[in-house]
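call fold(seq) -> tokens
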Amino acid sequence: MTAADVQPSASVASTGKGIRYVSNYAYAISGGVDLVQDELTTIFDFTTDVGVLVGKLQSGRNVKTSAEHEHFVYFNDLLIWYSKMDNATSVSNQAPNSQPLLLIIPPLTRVTVKMESKDGPTTDQTMIFTGRVYGAT
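ret:
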């Protein structure tokens, strides 16, 4: 199965919880997301197509002083990755996570990515996934 061609009137530059396919590439861009303290917020929730998806997941954040954030990645509701970030400094910063998460996602897999703030509400949390599709015909 091949992904449908992108129509000239369609916007391929978009944000949200879904995944977009352009030729043999796939991406998801969260846009700015506000987090509530001690509440899991869904950043991405999509099901992959028939090809194997190889890519990177990268988070960015506007982190206040001593802020803690937790990231969760699920495949078919199974937790496959967890990360805790802590800005244990006396100043706020704005930076991407130090290393992207490299992923190989099997075909027809439901992918859910969630974040949680442990130190109060935070604004403008972002995440991006970029990858390449293999084996879809």
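The chain has no helices and eleven strands.
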